[in-house]
């Protein structure tokens, strides 16, 4: 399979081709079509197998093909990730793959001033990438509205569990609409993550990528 065979918007495929990515990794081959079909998905795959593009590319496609009749952008996709570094990496992927679309993405995380993040949010974004603690801070101050979220992503769920974010995740998920697409990505699937997925995902399709299956050259 080649990226050109995946039914993604031509503007997104153009950006992917410019980065000389031609062959999707196994996790991308399995996950992208399901996300495009708006399925709930649980993916178990090691870091470095291309998980970011496995959700970023189809999310960009789904949002870019919508007809938006609102003047101010609303958060349509929320991506939770455990660390500032991962949030920045996901934002870079979204911006590079979506550079020929009108999709606006931003990332919020701790360790930096709240004010610049508030200013960006006030202008409106389509995709919000966030660490749980900073997201709750901004939400409690009235800077974030999750009522329009259509796609909710938990990235590196096991690491978020290890960092003690499980209560925050449940709270944030409850602030989103009940009717939404949910994607959970994790390197491992401990019992607490299985229990969490049972709570927040309805009839998910499960994908497991073992290390020996992963391709050598990865995108995202």
Strand content: 5-15%
Compute the gyration radius: what is it?
A: 16 Å
Beta-strand segment tally: 7
Query: How far apart are the termini?
Result: 17 Å
Category by helix and strand content: alpha/beta
Q: Write out the strand line-up for the largest beta sheet, numbering strands in chain order.
A: 3-4-2-5-6-1-7
Q: Biggest β-sheet: count, sense, barrel?
A: 7 strands, parallel
Uncertain parts: 214-219
Mean pLDDT: 92
**What is the ordering of alpha helices and beta strands?**
HHEHEHEHEHEHHEHE
Oligomerization status of the protein chains:
single chain
- Report the total helices: 9
Portion of residues within helices: 40-55%
Looking at the structure, what is the overall shape? Answer: globular
Describe the structure concisely.
The protein has 220 residues and is α/β, with parallel strands linked by helices.
How would you describe this protein?
The chain is α/β, with parallel strands linked by helices. Strands 3-4-2-5-6-1-7 form a seven-stranded parallel β-sheet, with helices on both faces. Helix 2 packs parallel to helix 3 and helix 3 crosses helix 4. The chain is globular, with a radius of gyration of 16 Å.
